Amino acid sequence: MLVKVLGQLTVVDSDGGLLPAGELPRRARQVLAVLAARHDRIQSKDALADAVWGEDLPGNHAGALEHYVSVIRRRLQPQGSPATWFIVTRSGGYLFDTGRAALDLAGLRQAVRKLDTLTPGDPEQLRVHEQILGLARELPFPEDPYADWAEPVRGEVSVAAVNALLKLSSAALAEDPPRSLRLAQEAVELNPFLESGYHAAMTAAVAMGRPDDALRIFERCRQVLDSELGVAPSAELAQIKRAVLASRSSDLAAPAPAPQTIPTVRTSTAPHERFLGRLTEIRLMVEPQTPPVVHIVGPSGAGKSAFLAELGRHTPGRIGIGDAGPAVGVLRLSWLRSVLTDLEASPAAIEAVDRALPDHPLGQAELELIAATFERPEQVFLAVDDARDLDASSVAELAWLSRHCPALRIVLAYEYPSQITGRPLAGLGTPVVMRLSPLTAEELEPLATPGVRELTGGIPALVAVARRPRAVADAVAMQVARRRTEWMAPPAWEMLRVCAVLGDLGASELAVLTGHSVTDVLTCVDALVHAHLLNECADGKVGHASALVRDAVAAQVSAATVLYLRKQLAAAS
């Protein structure tokens, strides 16, 4: 049996015969659609009723749901039984079992996940994109265009379709420019705010020798961005337009701009920072046998929060993220409430968290309610940012959930492994610890910003502000430096100051300038290098890893102090 929700609801039996899904009562079709949209997790009757009826719940919504599920089973599986029904009753709720009935939406999601396992340039990528495009030609749930439960799924399908269209358009450009243009124009129709679509369409039009079409495409982009967002097309798009105009005025054929790597599509039209690197870490997290507990560590500004958000993009609907930083007193379980909200847990599970007393762990009944959220056929992630200060009760609750929920993967983010020594969090164990290092020059290449590695040291927080006003960049750089040195001995900050104004220095020079022993200096140097604030040079000296940090620290040093330090250094030489 095959259930199709991409486009009009269609159900086909094992012999290829069309079943009367369109004749189901409207509410029954909605119940089936919601279960299909959330096929990877059990839906409690409360959650399912909230999606179907919203605030207009019937008096006995549980009974109404039971009736509509029964109608679906009778109409679509008249000869079925509990052993074969694809809508399975489980844990007091319902689950669309894709092992008993194929679902086109599940196939699309599986194909998107497969892309994450393929290396860049793998020919298999294009085949998977063709598969995605074949599935996502139509958006799901056209009967419910404004339903809250349907909107995220439509966005998910739209993103997958646009990415596939742009990748295939780029691949077709050299040998089949007309197809490249058609695919790019389809991408523009799906997401008229995405400049990548206009870029691909203009590039294809130029390759076909149709400069007037390229200019019309640019003008449409300009009008859409101006009227809807109040912004102008990017400099890159404007450059293509200028090249087209120049070729027309000189009556020469303009060479087609080289195909561009199409960035991952996001549904938001608001400005965002591009996520760079971390490919190995993301792949480890999304592979089928992810360890039950993974620790993500890195000093302030290493991009831990951004990494969790990016993991969420790769696992839509299967990750809940909470911040344990403010989780004290009455907010002890604020992180867990955020996780459950992200995962659309049942109202009963969220209420169990809200009722919890600050100084009391959750009981067995409450934990079982919460555990139902993680009972899914695919792995589901519970991520805790700033997790180092989780109290003993929270750690015990996480341990219980980990033992009783086979699909659950716990991701804990904090700065240094040494921070959890002697703390309750150490009780969860550290089977896998991934340290987020600075971004490499290769990982920063997509920014096309010369010298960004030297400017930022590859620290993600600094990369994000490298092209912003200098006052903003300096403030962030100073914050990163302060946060990364707050656990170090006091001489460490002195060494940062000295290297900021005098350049690369050796251990003996630092000892003279700071008045500390060489042993103390080397201890601080080790810590500063480990924190990626200083780099070791070939001549044995050390210097700042980031020009932004160097300049921000140097700005705090007076001219009189700089003159004094230079005299000291000259005397020591």
From TrEMBL:
This protein's record includes keyword DNA-binding: yes
Keyword field contains Phosphoprotein: no
Listed SUPFAM superfamilies: C-terminal effector domain of the bipartite response regulators (SSF46894), P-loop containing nucleoside triphosphate hydrolases (SSF52540), TPR-like (SSF48452)
Residue ranges of the annotated DNA-binding region, renumbered to this chain: 1-98
Keywords: DNA-binding, Transcription, Transcription regulation
Pfam families, per database record: AAA_16, BTAD, Trans_reg_C
GO molecular function terms attached to this record: DNA binding
Protein name: OmpR/PhoB-type domain-containing protein
